[in-house]
């Protein structure tokens, strides 16, 4: 036997590392999907351990997988009682999944590389950049001006760590006194406060207490704190980074210096929250099972809170099952849009909606270019936006048809839970908890597809970009 034929553990590790590096460089979208899926399987295995359940029994595969997907995808849909089923070990595993899923798998990988190597190389920068802009996920060059340049990735990663620690820490301290007033002891209140804070900022929607959100249904202080946490998580780390960077540069006096992505995210998010609150307020005004028994101030606060939760927050102070069908449809639309790109929220993203609206406006006005805030948006961004919407609609339609056939449940309830799963929102009409095992797998796959992202999913299943050195003759079909 020659020396070249001898296989050593070190040689195997080198080959594996080389293969992983080649995959990450050649097909970052597929690498993202593989890492994300592998992470879910690891958390599923941990949640199936007897030590993870409160009664020391093995959690069935379907329930463990569903919970792992819901945690890593920061969705918040549940098929078990989160307050009583899991032990402290199980809750820690779920909390770890929430944090990793909220920050982003590739961002975490870049941070780990930074800790190990003590420097941020090009590979780590490219991985983190794929989290900050899904359009980087496809193979080949990206010609549009990036939301965050490669030179700023180090600062962005620092901002991610800083914002997670500071925002979740601040939210924990703000929630703690409220839970102490409810009579919880200090350690329990501290744990529940952190749980609420992480659940809000990551837009997950898990609740650690057996009473759920009922004690805070009309609590202005608690709803405000949680709502602010969800809003900050839903606008995205690039927006937080941009606001922090321009605040340091005294950019508040020159708002036009903010990136276009930041302006579109903040403006569209604000419009959707206000419009959604107005719709919920008007449609549920006389519904005795939701807003009908509340005072005017409570109705306004609840409507604003529920509208904010459709960003992807998932914390509900109203019984979704008792809402009018018209309200459910409005919330379907809001959950479908979701939050900002590269955020802890899901959906097709608010900037996707903004680009489509701006394209329609430009077409109506006869403009050749899509414009916003004195900037021109490239046509390729519009193509990606259209692709995202089509992929999202296809996934939602497929899942809805399958679940309708399985459960024979009302269409509005099935559609609501499916869109909530795809948008990683976590709001539910109660259908999810009653699903058969097959339905749980379908909804878990919907959550996975929604969190992986339609752009990354499309790029991952497609072959590498093919260069075409000719153009076909042009012919215009009739549309509209």
From TrEMBL:
Any one GO cellular component localisation term in the record: plasma membrane
Protein name: Trk-type K+ transport system membrane component
Xref: InterPro entries: Cat_transpt
Topology of the protein relative to the lipid bilayer: Multi-pass membrane protein
GO molecular function, one term: monoatomic cation transmembrane transporter activity
Keywords, comma-separated and alphabetical: Cell membrane, Ion transport, Membrane, Transmembrane, Transmembrane helix, Transport
Domain of life: Bacteria
Transmembrane segments: 27-49, 61-80, 92-116, 153-176, 188-208, 220-244, 264-283, 333-361, 381-406, 441-463
GO biological process: metal ion transport
Localization in the cell: Cell membrane
């Amino acid at each position: 036997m020659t020396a070249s034929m001898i296989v050593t553990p070190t040689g195997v590790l080198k080959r594996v590392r080389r293969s992983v590096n080649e995959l990450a460089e050649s097909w970052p979208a597929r690498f993202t999907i593989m890492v994300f899926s592998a992470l879910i399987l690891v958390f599923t295995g941990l949640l199936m351990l007897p030590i993870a359940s409160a009664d020391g029994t093995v959690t069935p595969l379907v329930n463990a997988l569903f919970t792992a997907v819901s945690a890593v995808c920061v969705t918040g849909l549940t098929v078990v009682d989160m307050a009583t089923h899991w032990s402290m070990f199980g809750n820690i595993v779920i909390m770890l999944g929430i944090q990793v899923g909220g920050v982003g798998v590739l961002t975490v990988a870049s941070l780990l590389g930074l800790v190990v190597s003590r420097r941020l190389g090009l590979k780590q920068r490219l991985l983190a950049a794929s989290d900050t802009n899904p359009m980087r996920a496809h193979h080949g060059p990206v010609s549009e001006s990036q939301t965050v340049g490669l030179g700023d990735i180090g600062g962005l990663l620092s901002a991610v760590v800083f914002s997670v620690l500071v925002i979740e820490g601040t939210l924990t301290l703000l929630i703690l006194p409220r839970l102490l007033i409810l009579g919880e002891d200090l350690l329990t209140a501290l744990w529940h406060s952190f749980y609420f804070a992480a659940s809000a900022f990551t837009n997950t929607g898990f609740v650690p207490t057996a009473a759920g959100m009922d004690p805070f249904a009309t609590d202005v202080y608690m709803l405000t704190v949680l709502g602010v946490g969800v809003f900050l998580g839903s606008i995205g780390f690039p927006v937080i980074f941009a606001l922090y960077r321009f605040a340091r540069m005294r950019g508040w006096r020159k708002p036009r210096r903010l990136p276009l992505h930041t302006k579109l995210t903040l403006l569209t998010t604000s419009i959707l929250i206000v419009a959604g609150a107005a719709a919920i307020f008007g449609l549920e005004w006389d519904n005795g099972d939701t807003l009908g028994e509340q005072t005017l101030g409570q109705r306004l606060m609840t409507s604003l809170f529920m509208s904010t939760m459709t960003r992807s927050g998932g914390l509900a102070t109203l019984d979704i099952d008792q809402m009018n069908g018209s309200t459910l449809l409005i919330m379907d639309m809001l959950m479908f849009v979701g939050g900002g790109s590269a955020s802890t929220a899901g959906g097709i993203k608010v900037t996707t909606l903004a680009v489509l609206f701006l394209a329609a406006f430009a077409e109506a006005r006869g403009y050749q270019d899509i414009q916003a805030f004195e900037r021109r948006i490239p046509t390729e961004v519009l193509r990606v936006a259209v692709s995202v919407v089509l992929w999202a609609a296809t996934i939602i339609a497929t899942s809805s048809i399958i679940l309708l056939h399985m459960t024979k449940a009302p269409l509005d309830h099935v559609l609501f839970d499916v869109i909530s799963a795809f948008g990683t929102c976590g709001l539910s009409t109660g259908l999810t908890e009653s699903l058969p095992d097959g339905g749980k797998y379908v909804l878990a796959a919907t959550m996975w597809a929604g969190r992986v992202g339609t752009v990354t999913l499309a790029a991952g299943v497609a072959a590498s970009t093919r260069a075409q050195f000719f153009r076909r003759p042009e012919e215009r079909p009739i549309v509209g």
